[in-house]
Design goal:
alpha+beta; 14% strand; 39% helix; globular; two-stranded parallel ribbon; single chain; 57 residues
Amino acid sequence: MNEIVITPYGGLANRMRALNAAIEFAKAEGSRLRVKWFSNRELNAPYDALFTPPIMS
């Protein structure tokens, strides 16, 4: 199985738009998606403070 890695940047709306596109692309390709999330001055919040990470089976 292939893996797609995304590092979204910018504010929350920009990151959510990039995540949505990456999720849909990964589904269409049958690939796993890995998100690298960095806090910075545009969005100083860790991923797990905003979202509940999915349970991987």
